[in-house]
Amino acid sequence: MTFGVIITTYNSPIWLEKVLWGYENQLDKDFEVIIADDGSGEATQNLIEKFRQRNKLKLWHIWHEDKGFRKTEILNKAIQANSCDYLMFTDGDCIPRNDTIAVHKSHARRGRFCSAGYFKLTMPVSELITEEHIQSGDVFDYQWLIKQGQPESNKSLKLTATGFKQKILNFITPTKATWNGANSSAFKEDLLAVNGFDERMQYGGLDRELGERLENNGIKGLQIRYSSICVHLDHQRGYASPEIWEKNRKIREAVKKNKSTWTDFGIIKSTSSEVS
Questions:
Q1: Cα 220 to the center of its chain, rounded Å
Q2: pLDDT tens digit string along 179-219?
């Protein structure tokens, strides 16, 4: 099974650098990295070239022109642009723990997708993280984070649970196994079978909507939020608005009501569909 990680990014090279350090630090080295770039400028291109020269990652850069928030479009292009059997999806602000690839591979099964976890950091803690902190694993040490100023959290078990305790927590958590853009994975053929991401969707539920169509098509979510974890760097979300949320909500409601498995606004466009 060939394995690829699709990382979305947009003009955040400082955060993307930390994330790529995390993938260089993986215990399982047998995977590709596909950067789905929603129109970043030269700084991001220079960063990717720097990592290519380090020669620790098999790295691909899929880019399109900046015409506003078009994350779903670049994700669909990234899905098409690789030949991997199995794909993990994450964002350019999510640093993976060193066992992330191994955990997703170990849980990959036909008929399901994996829904993993993330732990949100504050901006001050996000900014102080270095390559050394990632290599040493400090950034996933809850007590170390607290010492750096991270507030205490009732979600600390995501970082502290190990072994059998992870399995128990995955099983008993009331949180549904939904598709999230920070840390989810599926077989590529299953993503193609539902026509990828709906390109009408903007920020707010675009990942959940894909997962809902997968489930309608018989691909069930597996909860591994305590087994596979990334730390989520802080950032602003200027591209969110109530109007966009409402538009996305209506699309998702239709998917649920009609039990839709396919979108006419995905990788393959129907002759009558037009993304707006």
A1: 18
A2: 999 999 999 999 999 999 999 998 889 999 999 999 999 99
Report in angstroms the alpha-carbon separations of 6 from 35, 55, 56, 150, 166. 6, 18, 17, 28, 25
* Separation between Cα atoms, residue 190 and residue 218, nearest integer Å: 10
Number of helices (H) and strands (E), helices first, in the chain? 12, 8
DSSP run (H or E) holding 26: none
Ramachandran region of residue 183, left (φ > 0), alpha (ψ -120 to 50) or beta? Answer: beta
CATH fold of the domain at 3-258? Spore Coat Polysaccharide Biosynthesis Protein SpsA; Chain A (3.90.550)
**Which residues on neighbouring strands pair with residue 145, listed in sequence order?**
none
Instruction: Write down the domain spans for the chain.
Output: 3-258
β pairing state of 112-120 and 220-232: parallel
Question: pLDDT tens digits for 97-111?
Answer: 999 999 999 999 999
* Whether 151 contacts 122, CB under 8 Å: yes
Alpha helices in the chain (DSSP H): 13-24, 42-54, 71-80, 100-107, 123-128, 131-136, 142-147, 157-160, 163-172, 188-193, 206-216, 242-258
End-to-end alpha carbon distance in the chain: 37
